[in-house]
Amino acid sequence: MDNEKVKRNREYSERAFWTGHYHFLMQALAVASTHCLVWRSVEEGLPFTLKDIFELAKRHDEEHEISEPSFYYVSREGAIGICPGLEYLTQWLFIPMEPGEERDLLLNELRESLREEEAIEEAVNKAITDGLEQEKKSAIYYIMDNGRQEGPFNVQQLKHRHVTADTLVWAKGMSTWVKAGQVSEIMMALSPAEPAAAAASVPQAGTPQTEAPLYYMIGKDNQQTGPHTVDGLLRIGLTPESLVWAEGMSQWVRAADVPLIATAITAATAPPQQAPVPPQGTSAQVRYYMLDRENRQVGPFTIDDLLRAGLKPESLVWAAGMTEWKRASEVPLIAAALRRG
């Protein structure tokens, strides 16, 4: 908006204040709404609420600027009209709606709409406030970058600072500078490529992999260890809350959120006696039970049945006489069948 138009609009506003003559429909509506909230259009007889005229005024004032000496006028009851220069020649545009059922209904709808808008605005403001509070509660870290101390940064800001597991970090409460890889909060926030770069021993893309994935884990002392098989993780004290990562994963996650590991944890902690005893039969062939992809127990199966059911080397199986669920590749008879294909 150019300076000349700004100056002219200011003059219109000052004139409206002193004379009650309004250059913009929005100015007239602001005054009329102190007397009335529901009107009827004079020309068509249609009902208009405060919100309806507000939207109309926004469009009208932008597209149709009134020319002098005409002006908008508001009556003592809240009627809105346009005058060619003399008040007694007012052409009324909107008049207050007469009392009655229709007016009451429109007023109720308007009030309900305004309450909903206030609730939405309140929810948005609360979300913004909560987000700011959460950011304040987040630990504030300093980092060493090429020998220079930089910061303070919260965890989200560290994601954009090219922090790796070997970057030295410090926060209030720490006795000394430590590697970022030792701080689980930072490891969780590292960019997707960082976990793989955290240790030289992590397999590079394109390196031949075994069928069973190998995992890295953040231990109780916040030290990264690995690579491990799932059984290896269980042997070194893996818990459902331990942070793990493997090639192809975008970030470190809880062990309980990795289906293969979660199944192994469940199987390792389940009492062996809970496994069903297969029905006795005359066949000397061993019958096995298996945990399927949804971690449901199915069976009993012969070995051929297992293969047809989609058995994998890492599938967990059990049979009478076994003290615990084991991976299929650890059961000699099944492992031999898997090799035969």
Please render the helix and strand layout as text:
Blueprint: H1 3-19, H2 25-32, E1 38-41, E2 47-49, H3 50-63, E3 71-74, E4 80-83, E5 91-96, H4 101-137, E6 141-145, E7 148-153, H5 155-158, E8 168-171, E9 178-179, H6 184-189, H7 194-197, E10 215-218, E11 224-228, H8 230-235, E12 243-245, E13 253-254, H9 259-269, E14 288-291, E15 297-301, H10 303-308, E16 316-319, E17 326-327, H11 332-340
Antiparallel strand pairs: 1-2, 1-5, 3-4, 4-5, 6-7, 6-8, 8-9, 10-11, 10-12, 12-13, 14-15, 14-16, 16-17
Find the count of extended strands (DSSP E, 2+ residues): 17
Rg for CA atoms: 37 Å
Order of strands in the sheet with the most strands?
2-1-5-4-3
Average of per-residue pLDDT values: 76
Helix/strand-derived category reads alpha+beta
Are there runs of 5+ residues with pLDDT below 50, and where? 191-210, 271-284
Alpha carbon gap, first and last residue: 78 Å
Measured as a percent range, the helix fraction is 25-40%
Order of helices and strands: HHEEHEEEHEEHEEHHEEHEEHEEHEEH
By DSSP (H or I, 4+ residues per run), the number of helices equals 11
Quick synopsis:
This protein has 341 residues and is of the alpha+beta class.
Which key phrases capture this entry?
341 residues; alpha+beta; 5-stranded antiparallel β-sheet; 4-stranded antiparallel β-sheet; 17 strands; elongated
Give a verbal description of the structure:
There is one protein chain. The longest helix has 37 residues, at 101-137. Helix content is 36%, strand content 20%. The model is unreliable at 191-210 and 271-284 (pLDDT under 50). It has eleven helices and 17 strands. The strands form four sheets. It has a five-stranded antiparallel sheet with strand order 2-1-5-4-3. The chain is of the alpha+beta class. It is elongated, with a radius of gyration of 37 Å. The protein starts with a helix and ends with a helix.
